[in-house]
Amino acid sequence: MTETHATTTPGAPVFPPGRYGRRREPGRRRPWLTRVLLAVALAVSSLAAFRLYQQYGDPTYDAQVITYTDITDTQVVVEFRVTVPPGGSAVCLLRARDVDGVEVSREQVTVTAPGDERSVTTRHRLATSARPFIGEVVRCRAAA
Fold first, then answer.
1. Between these two residues, 1 and 98, which has the higher pLDDT value?
2. For residue 61, which of 126, 115, 138 has the smallest C-alpha distance?
3. Which of 1, 2, 34, 79 shows the smallest number of beta carbons within 10 Å?
4. Where is the composition biased (Polar residues) (predicted)?
């Protein structure tokens, strides 16, 4: 014979009394805790994005490789254009890689815009440890 209680909703399981221990009450919801954790995660993500933008994403120091020429077993000449603030200067990191993608040279070059110009075109010779396949500008940043 089964027991039917007036407070039991239809379809809910009915457990024999004392057989499975005491049923727990539903846990207290803490919506404020979720909101605080979400706000902290958002703040940390925003701070990380801001720091990475400062370090790697400064659009005022934009570099373009125009050409790389005079490729020999020991050198490559890289011609590049850098956009800087008017009359400013930048430190650019240049590198050369071989046909397998291995870096064979790396050098920092300082370029300065004459007068109030915003663009500087420069040629620089990179001495390499093996025959390069490509010469490139990795990044430019403000001169210290």
1. 98
2. 138
3. 1
4. 1-10
Domain 62-142 matching CATH 3.30.450: the answer reads no
Query: Residue 4 above 70 pLDDT?
Result: no
The token pair that represents 30 in the structure block: 């803490």
Q: Where are the beta strands (DSSP E) in 11-133?
A: 62-69, 75-83, 89-97, 103-112, 119-127
Domain locations along the chain = 28-57, 62-142
Per DSSP, 142 falls in state: E
Residue 35 tokens read as 């909101």
* CA gap 107, 126 in Å, rounded: 7
5-14 pLDDT, tens digit per residue, is 556 566 777 7
List the end-to-end C-alpha distance of the chain, in Å, as a whole number: 88
Tell me the whole-structure pTM to 2 decimals: 0.59
Contact 124, 137 (CB under 8 A): no
DSSP state of 117: -
Which candidate, 120, 112, 113, places its Cα nearest to that of 80?
Answer: 120
